[in-house]
Design a protein that fits this description.
globular, 5-stranded antiparallel β-sheet, SH3 type barrels, 2 domains, 410 residues, 8-stranded mixed β-sheet, alpha+beta, Fumarylacetoacetate hydrolase, domain 2
């Protein structure tokens, strides 16, 4: 597939990708856009020029604060629109008309891609779950008894999900200092990132219905990078008996661009063998894992990036189809724009651990950055950057960046 637009070979936003997001400029209100190379393509302008030719693409859908209304048109509309735009970008005859609809990414402000009604965080990396179990429970029996039987998850706080680039204040809460028997109120001392990905629900269901693993792909619009910030000391004190609360709800960072499942299709791979066999409603056919290279960097205030983790989404034990099937098997309804995160994505060796909790092994060892400073957890002034991309047979599909800087507690 060849486009007339000049695109760097290392760009996340190739002609094979075309992710969707919401952007604005000093003169344009928030609207639906597609990332291509160094540009955002304004779908409203493209539609007004008569280049999309779909009567469901109204101005209200395309000039919008969120992608929800566009996604709700359904894949019978959104998939052909993306394909039409691919064709426009490959046909020289449309070059002049499409050029009028391009805006330099350097001139845009990116916004939350979707309005998140509900957010669920899973715990689906067997490597991560095993590491945590070895640290805090029994090294010989690290996984809890239910872990290989259900995609463990919890319902999180959607209001504190923020777009890439948003600065985050260090959270405060109750912590139990080591060796003490009474908690204190304090700023978090053990602030962590979690390398995750999230999928965006693209098709709603009614209360009482469920989604099978075979149907799941029809209900998933696409994926984005996700950092589920964690206050480990607050979390440790509060999570028994009901699980995460203040240690998670203070902030999560999402990338601004949503990569469609259609763009990711060439990068499908087999998932890990699941043993013991799963319940029939969690059984699936075909490939539902994706070969997505993931990377985390820490940039200290005034410093340079330090890559601290290189992992891959293909390691996930529980896939998206199983997560969605389990989420809805009890009749729970889902809505367009709902976000479901993977849980920390760790690989099989130390270089691929997806959190500082694992990298520092619960604070027992330090990581030295290139400026000579050391980290066991995230310090004030640090910016954490997540990146991810797929690459195969000359095709590159990337996710942009999910970054956030930590400010002191208020």
């Amino acid at each position: 597939m060849n486009t007339w637009l000049t695109i760097d070979a290392e760009s996340d936003f190739s002609i094979y990708n075309l992710p969707f997001g919401i952007f604005s400029t000093s003169s344009l209100s928030p609207r639906v856009g597609i990332a291509i190379g160094d540009y955002a393509l304004d779908l409203s302008k493209l539609n007004s020029a008569g280049l999309l030719s779909n009567d469901k693409l109204t101005n209200d859908v395309l000039v919008n604060n969120y992608l929800n209304d566009f996604i709700a048109l359904g894949k019978q509309v959104t998939v052909p629109i993306r394909e039409r735009i691919q064709n426009l970008l490959c046909d020289e005859n449309n070059k002049d008309a499409v050029n009028h609809c391009l805006v330099n990414l350097s001139d845009v402000t990116m916004h939350m891609p979707v309005q998140v009604g509900d957010y669920t965080d899973f715990y689906s990396s067997i490597e991560h779950a095993t590491n945590v179990g070895m640290m805090f429970r029994d090294p010989e029996n690290a996984l809890l008894p239910n872990w290989k039987h259900i995609p463990v998850g919890y319902h999180g706080r959607s209001s504190s999900i923020v777009p890439s680039g948003t600065e985050i204040h260090r959270p405060k809460g109750q912590v139990l200092p080591k060796g003490e028997d009474k908690p204190i109120f304090s700023p978090c001392r053990l602030l962590d990132f979690e390398l995750e990905m999230a999928f965006i629900v693209g098709k709603s269901t009614k209360l009482g219905s469920s989604v099978s693993t075979d149907e799941a792909a029809d209900h998933i619009f696409g994926m984005t990078l996700f950092n589920d910030w964690s206050a480990r000391d607050i979390q440790k004190w509060e999570y028994v008996p009901l699980g995460p609360f203040l240690g998670k709800s203070f902030a999560s960072t999402t990338a601004a661009w949503v990569v469609t499942l259609e763009a990711l299709a060439p990068f499908k791979v087999d998932g890990p063998v699941q043993d013991p066999p799963v319940q029939p409603y969690l059984a699936y056919s075909g490939q539902h894992n994706y070969n997505i290279n993931l990377e985390v960097a820490i940039c200290p205030e005034g410093g340079t990036d330090n890559v601290v983790s290189k992992s891959n989404y293909k390691y996930m034990y529980w896939n998206m189809a199983q997560q969605l099937a389990h989420h809805t098997v009890n009749g729970c309804n889902i809505n367009v724009g709902d976000m479901m995160a993977s849980g920390t994505i760790s690989g099989k060796d130390e270089s691929s651990y997806g959190s500082m909790l694992e990298i520092s092994w619960a604070g027992s060892k330090s990581l030295t950055l290139n400026d000579g400073s050391e980290r066991k957890f995230i310090k004030d002034g640090d910016t954490v950057k997540l990146n991810g991309y797929c690459e195969k047979d000359g095709m590159r599909v990337g996710f942009g960046e999910a970054s956030g800087k930590i400010l002191p507690a208020t």
